[in-house]
Amino acid sequence: MSVKEKLKKVLIEDLNLEDVEPEEIEDDMALFGDGLGLDSLDAVELVVIVQKHFGVEIKDMEEGRPAFQSVNTLAQYIEQRLA
Amino acid sequence: MRMAIQGIGVSGGFGRGVEALRAALQTGTVEVQQGCVERNGGTDIFPAYRASIDGLDEFIPKRALRRIDHFSKMTLLSACLALKDAALLEGDCSRMGVVIASGYGALKTTFDFLDSYLDFGYSCSSPTHFSNSVHNAAAAHVSIQFKATAPSLTVTQFEMSVPSALLSAQQWLAEGRVDQVLFGAIDEYCEVLRYCRKQFFGLGEQGPLQPFSFDKQSAVVGEGAVFFVLTRADENAAYGCIDTVTLGNHLVCPVKLPQDDLLIIGADGHKECGRWYAQAFKGRETAAYAPLYGSFPAAVGFDLAVAALSLRDRTFYASPELSGAATSVVTLHRKLAEEKLVCLKFGPGGDYGLVRLSI
Q: Does B252 touch chain A (CB under 8 A)?
């Protein structure tokens, strides 16, 4: 399973997005606001999800902000840290 | 001060809603589900009364529920049903207090939070799990949902949680701090609870639940939520009234049961509590309904719902399980005249709660 596919799966499971299917999350869809509709508490959960499922620690939110734009940017961030 | 019961909402192993509870009382049977836990040592299969939260999205959109755990979802479902029953679902709840009684609180969420802390460290502990593990979280969800801006409280005193919390509700109404109290009793099942009960009680958890076999461990784990809309009794009651609530200890001050009242005992197959009932109810017309919803501290609230429903239906329902029962136990449904009903619950150390109800 690719990082993007795993990300979509854990986003749905850990954020309880029961009404969303993985294939409905487009790679460049905005995670917050009008896209997937996540909010500030989800941002904190995202930090936990990334560390728990990928072993990548996001130490400050300024660093995380650009990564949290979409599945594409977040997957890229994770892959860079794992490289 | 008497409290009038204006609405009831309930969900448990028998189904959801007052009609499902009435059907269980009339037939005297509930199909107990089979729980199953996979462990390193093999598969653990056991009986359990589980509550479904199906239908909650009729009241609250699914997306709004995504951060809410099973405990709070059970709470919200029964709270919605109670308000609907009292025709208050769309009403102004600004002067409605919320009181919740729970023996264990949100067990699954609490253990999930602790597990995440132990497994991954503090930086990976979910903030959502943490906020839901706070004991008053479920009451807060109810207050927020219905814009109930009066006080919101959760009381935990194990077996005595329900009578203890009822005293707070009664006090708020007597003081005029609130016009109504949305009063709930909730407990949930989780795998850790199953593990603990198996260590303590072993095969005593295999059922069937026999409330009148006082010297035998026969408890079967259950979960569920029941809510009542309570007002001062100067309004007509839809179901009946709670006359008095008494807490005490049978060793210090033996329980005094009103002479002609009919008794509903909270015996639920726990041997440690059974002996107290054996001493207290001698010869009195008695029923026990735990085989319809299982063993858990908040089940006292279900006894209370049965009492309220009995008053409304003018029927004293037969006990569903009679093994070990004395001759005074009610074996057939019978009409209620003007009798009062008393719900009696004992804890293991002789602590008791007594709630007296009448039309």
A: no
